[in-house]
Fold:
Amino acid sequence: MKPKRIPDPSHLRRCPKQFSWIDHRLVRLGHVRGRSAHALALYLILVAVGDADGVSWYGDERLGLELGCSVGTLHKVRDELTDAGLIAYDRPFYQVLELADQPATMPQLGDALDRLAHKGERG
Structure:
């Protein structure tokens, strides 16, 4: 294996004063698997703008604008992340949740997809 080489040492990232790092377990334990691109983008925005408790006050219109999607699409994406246990929502607050230490499983993903399908049937 080649030794690590830093391509641009003058721009090393440092932990900022605000809460905005993404937990590596998101990928390592499979929490990103099966998520839509909009859902992952929303998660990234919420992590970036949340406070130390993971809470954000960004409204739906602003988040839709940042994501480049309608408010209706944002609601579906929000449900996707809520069903996956990645965020909580209590209008107007979004909260990025602590990640589970267990790997995401296919049955969990299947259950989330079933809930989404049933929400779509109800209109």
Q: What stands out?
A: Helices lie at 25-28, 37-49, 60-67, 71-83, 106-121.
